[in-house]
Design a protein that fits this description.
It is a single chain. The chain has eleven helices and four strands. The chain is globular, with a radius of gyration of 18 Å. With about 200 residues, it is mainly α. The strands form two sheets. A two-stranded parallel ribbon has the order 1-4. Strands 2-3 form a two-stranded parallel sheet. The two termini are about 20 Å apart. It has two domains: about 40 residues, no CATH class; about 150 residues, Nitrile hydratase alpha /Thiocyanate hydrolase gamma (Nitrile Hydratase, Chain A), CATH 3.90.330.10.
């Protein structure tokens, strides 16, 4: 990945310090309790995150009919799976999947801010919110993907999907070669958040 989308460790420390100070103030004012933040973090660590998206992608890889349903009506297809309650809640109300293949590679961005399908991808990384990434990916997606280490062949079309509060996109990457006979659980382990954003491809271990 290009150094353009990396940040110094100090940024994490500064943001953590700000968050801790804000948390202390909100607790002092009685807006939240000391357990509120831990509850929210635990929610995203165990219930809402890229592990959900990976399960949906793995299901789509082994079940062509499910893949069609996932692309045609993403919320309904997601509801078929044994996911925690709340998948259609905050940040997941209007999810839409697009599938790579047939000479097409998909990339998701958010030119306005950082709209993102949290239930299936977790929290967005810093670089996704970076103004440089947001603007350049819209103008020159092939060049930006190359900086991420993904050299998309010239004969493959790149489609860029702009997420918003009305619709939040994610990508169904192509199934890696050499994965025949693998279980859905094994396949899910090959799916990364980056591959579901379109800045990488899924690879066999």
């Amino acid at each position: 990945m290009s150094d353009r989308f990396f940040y110094d460790a100090d940024r994490e420390k500064k943001n953590a310090a700000r968050a801790k100070a804000l948390q202390a103030l909100l607790i002092e004012k009685g807006v939240i309790t000391s357990k509120t933040v831990d509850t929210v973090l635990g929610y995203f660590e165990t219930k809402m995150g890229p592990f959900n998206g990976a399960k949906a992608v793995a299901k789509a890889w082994v079940d062509p009919a499910y893949r069609e349903r996932l692309v045609a009506d993403t919320p309904a297809a997601i509801a078929e799976l044994d996911f925690p309650e709340g998948m259609a809640g905050a940040e997941g109300e209007h999810m839409k999947a697009v599938a790579n293949g047939d000479g097409v590679h998909n990339l998701i961005i958010c030119t306005l801010c950082s709209c993102y399908p949290w239930p299936v991808l977790g929290l967005p990384p810093y670089w996704y919110k970076d103004p440089t990434f947001r603007s350049r990916a819209a103008r020159e997606p092939r060049a930006v993907l190359k900086e991420f280490g993904l050299d998309v062949p010239a004969d493959v079309e790149i489609k860029v999907w702009d997420s918003s509060a009305q619709i939040r996109w994610f990508v169904v990457p192509e199934r890696p070669e050499g994965t025949e006979g693998m279980s859905e659980e094994q396949l899910a382990a090959l799916v990364t958040p980056e591959s579901m954003m379109g800045v990488a491809v899924a690879k066999a271990a």
